[in-house]
Design brief:
heterodimer; A: mainly alpha; 2 strands; 68% helix; globular; B: alpha+beta; OB fold (Dihydrolipoamide Acetyltransferase, E2P); 5-stranded mixed β-barrel; 4 helices; 32% strand; elongated
């Protein structure tokens, strides 16, 4: 029997939502300060309104005052799912008021795309957008990639932190407590922020010849979008704007760092480093990256799109890396990417769908699930082929030897299948609107796996239902379904429960 | 006879003028057409027209890189009440430093960059630059100088924001007192 949620359930959910909104209200002071520094008074007004709305929701949430502040699993999941709906809606206010988005839906689309670190965009005339608004777009990547919840946890962490942490699609508890893990994640981000912005800024200034202030601006924006595998860029031509292999190389390092699990970051910091390459997840991602890279390069070579090996390798490598890490930066126009047919298209689509590592900022099925699924299938095949008396190993190495249980394999396969269903959903809606199969599939995988590469389907003029489908894909794909199901279950219990 | 001659001249003009106009139009390649079939123009000298936006990157090899946009915003900025017509349409351009001397600053927020007509070789998947595509400019004419645009604060939005912030603060303080 379904138990109908009572007032206390709503108070607990409201209270935790309130805390999170206050964190976001504090974060929105940053673009506000940016607007003041740049004397951008029109965006400034909209940031004041946005901060006010977040603060108001936060204070109202705190006034819910539940009897206990201990979150149960279901509460935590509902809090996470709602956070990822409400923050983009309020966060879209400055976009909607700027005149660069056709309507509020488009503004929410971009805010959700930013927060979910997808990178698909409906902004119009990006090249004349106010820098403070550009900063807010990229800061959304940072908040979403590092995790708003993680931010909230590192600031306050009484009761139920673990539930919120898992709700945001994170599995690794690197340190004994969730709070210390959350703080470690922010420490990793802070170190990368300093090193990344310095490196990109120096390249922009010394190699590309940009002015110091503009170098810093580009360094910061590309850091947010690269390290958080987001894919927004400050100029309309994405990474192609820079026309520099060195700049692409520096960005690629950040993209790889962003797609690495925080567990792996921890191992790199504290060691033992040798064990890293023994991990199933590391071996899987190296294997799938190599496979999709070869597929794409062979496809490009057969298609004769590039006349030089260097050109083919550089463009192919960057696009596949961008797809596999779920970043979504491109060095070629979307019209050109749409022309990558055959094997090149297959390589890119598979790379996007597989995604990065678990507990990272990347989206997609994730390497560990792919590894576990492959290992489980291999074990099944071995069990069939080998004599009955033979014993088939059922363990794998991932920061220590672990048992590959049936439940684990089922769980990995279920989530993988849900992703496939999500990809087909978006592709189906696209095809229904007359988008060719290949392009519909590419764009759908890009949205569902939080990548952001586009072959031109995502556009302000696309049908409303298609926009909403992609928004659902970005939301569900980023949260890896569990929190969404919990929210749906909660709503169902509210309506039908007793 | 005069009537016939006049009629012939008139007919000739009617036929020829669109032809002349077409020939002039053909000289400038719209970026939509260039990006739709970039390989068609590979290695050819073409002329494109549009606004210089983003940054002027002066590199150590004596070249300057920037982006040239050929979209409605190049002539009709959103801030000035221009229509929304979708995303930007732009390509990378490279020119010798000397050509960039005296140019107004590139387009950006509240800035309309110089509108230029640029002629050069369309380098598509240039093997010497790792497969990049860009226009290698050899001559540049400024069609329209850049200009500053205005965008003041939205007082209603600002007032609404301050009211909501103040109300939130009051609510929070009241809540603390109740506790």
């Amino acid at each position: 029997m379904l138990i109908k949620p009572i007032g206390e359930d709503f108070r607990i959910i409201g209270y935790y939502l309130g805390r999170i909104f206050l964190v976001v209200a504090a974060a929105s002071l940053l673009p506000m300060a940016w607007a003041v520094a740049g004397r951008e008074w029109h965006p400034f007004a909209s940031f004041v309104l946005m901060a006010g709305l977040f603060a108001l929701l936060g204070v109202l949430g705190l006034r819910a005052r539940p009897e206990t502040d201990r979150l149960e699993w279901g509460h935590g999941m509902v809090v996470v799912a709602l956070t990822w709906v409400i923050v983009p809606v309020i966060g879209a206010v400055p976009f909607a008021l700027s005149g660069h988005w056709a309507n509020p839906l488009d503004a929410v689309f971009d805010a959700l795309s930013g927060l979910s670190t997808t990178g698909l965009a409906l902004v119009q005339d990006l090249d004349h957008l106010a820098p403070s608004l550009n900063f807010w777009r990229h800061l959304l990547h940072f908040l979403g990639g590092q995790g708003i919840i993680v931010a909230a946890l590192s600031l306050f962490a009484r009761g139920g932190g673990i539930t919120l942490y898992h709700g945001e699609a994170r599995d690794d508890r690197i340190l004994p407590s969730v709070t210390s893990t959350a703080r470690f994640i922010w420490a990793v981000a802070a170190v990368h922020l300093i090193v990344g912005v310095a490196a990109l800024g120096l390249v922009a200034n010394l190699v590309l010849g940009f002015t110091p202030i503009r170098s810093l601006f580009h360094g910061l924006m590309i850091f947010f979008a690269g390290f958080d595998t987001g894919g927004f860029a400050p100029q309309s031509t994405s990474l192609g704007y820079y026309h520099s292999a060195i700049f692409e190389g520096a960005t690629a390092v950040l993209m790889v760092a962003g797609a690495m699990s925080f567990g792996l970051h921890f191992a790199l910091w504290r060691g033992p480093r040798r064990a890293i390459f023994a991990n199933l997840e590391t071996k899987t991602i190296l294997g799938t990256f190599g496979f999709t890279m070869i597929l794409t390069l062979v496809g490009l070579a057969v298609g004769g799109l590039y006349t030089s090996v260097v050109g083919l390798s550089r463009q192919g490598f960057f696009q596949v890396l961008s797809a596999h890490t779920g970043t979504g930066f491109a060095t070629i126009p979307s019209a050109e990417l749409a022309g990558w047919g055959g094997l090149a298209f297959g390589g890119m689509a598979i790379a996007m769908a597989l995604g990065g590592m678990g507990s990272s900022t990347a989206g997609g099925v994730k390497a560990l699930r792919v590894g576990i699924t492959v290992k489980a299938i291999t074990n099944q095949v071995k069990a069939v082929l080998l004599p009955e008396a033979a014993v088939v190993g059922t363990s794998y190495y991932q920061s220590g030897r672990r048992n590959l249980t049936t439940e684990l394999a089922q769980s990995a396969m279920t989530v993988s299948l849900l992703y496939v269903a999500l990809f087909f959903l978006g592709a189906g809606v696209g095809i229904a609107y007359g988008v060719p199969l290949q392009e519909a599939l590419f764009e759908s995988v890009s949205a569902g796996a939080s990548v952001g590469l586009s072959v031109g389907v995502t556009d302000a003029a696309m049908p409303v239902l298609l926009k909403m489908t992609y928004m659902f894909q970005m939301w569900a794909g980023r949260l890896e379904f569990v929190a969404i199901f919990a929210l749906l279950g909660f709503l169902y219990a509210w309506v039908r429960g007793k | 006879m005069r009537f016939v001659l006049t009629a012939l001249v008139f007919v000739a003009l009617v036929v020829a003028v669109p032809g002349i106009a077409t020939a002039q139009d053909d000289a400038v390649v719209p970026l939509d057409a260039l990006l739709a079939q970039p390989e068609t123009y590979s290695g050819r000298t073409i002329t494109i027209e549009g606004e210089l936006v983003g940054d002027y990157g002066f590199r150590s090899d004596g070249t300057m890189w920037t982006q040239l946009n050929d979209d409605s915003y190049a002539r009709d900025a959103l801030v000035d009440g221009g229509p929304r017509t979708g995303g930007n349409t732009g390509v990378g351009v490279r020119m010798p430093d000397a050509l960039a001397e005296g140019l107004d600053g590139p387009g950006g927020y509240r800035l309309e960059g110089p509108l230029v007509r640029a002629t050069g070789i369309w380098k598509y998947h240039d093997p010497d630059r790792g497969g990049e595509s860009y226009l290698d400019i050899s001559s540049l004419d400024v069609v329209e100088v850049g200009r500053q645009l205005e965008e003041g604060p939205d007082w209603i939005v600002l007032a609404a924001g301050i009211v909501v912030l103040a109300f939130s603060l009051g609510l929070w303080l009241a809540g603390r007192r109740e506790v």
